[in-house]
Amino acid sequence: MGCRKCGGCLSCLLILLALWSIIVNILLYFPNGQTSYVSGNKLTNYVWYFEGICFSGILMLIVAAALLVLENVNNYKCCQSENCSEKYMTLLSIVFSALGIAFSGYCLVISALGLVQGPYCRTHSGWEYAFEDTAGRFLTDSSIWSQCLEPAHVVEWNIILFSILITLSGLQVIVCFIRVVIQLSKILCGIYSVITQPGII
């Protein structure tokens, strides 16, 4: 029962992280709350991968909902024995948790690439990726951020939001990995129980 409650809490945490990922990703489309840049397609190309909205967001919500259902299904029998049914549900839980790792991992990688590339902004030379060739070194040198003239404070905007997305998706990876470990331990403990008690069928 304790593991079941723990699994349910982890699934609820995934839902919370997914909702925040959607919100943060949406904010990336509106630097300083302005809509003109998204309509003019003057945003960094990595926001169009929908990493926070689709992968760490909607798809993760589906994964979390499926895990909650699996945690709360009682007396479901997919085969003749209760032990077989429980193992089947555990395997399904592992599959969904692995999918969660893949989805959140995608968001983590894309967000990191967006952070390192830097924002698409207007400089004295026109609209460009002003820091694309710095290999992320601009992140620790705020003195060159002023090269981006428009949108105002877009460097800080991108750094903060992409960093939050990285944190949220990283937490999702950890939570899903913990779920995989928990479910694998249940399977292994079941096998160990059968081995140590050969007389029980």
From TrEMBL:
GO terms for cellular component: membrane. Signal peptide: none annotated. Keywords: Membrane, Transmembrane, Transmembrane helix. It comes from the Eukaryota. The keyword Ion transport does not apply. It is a multi-pass membrane protein. InterPro entries: L6_membrane. The chain crosses the membrane at residues 7-28, 48-70, 91-116, 159-182. The keyword Transmembrane helix applies. It is found in: Membrane. Belongs to the L6 tetraspanin family. PANTHER family: TRANSMEMBRANE 4 L6 FAMILY MEMBER 1-RELATED, TRANSMEMBRANE 4 L6 FAMILY MEMBER 18. This is Transmembrane 4 L6 family member 18. It comes from Nannospalax galili.
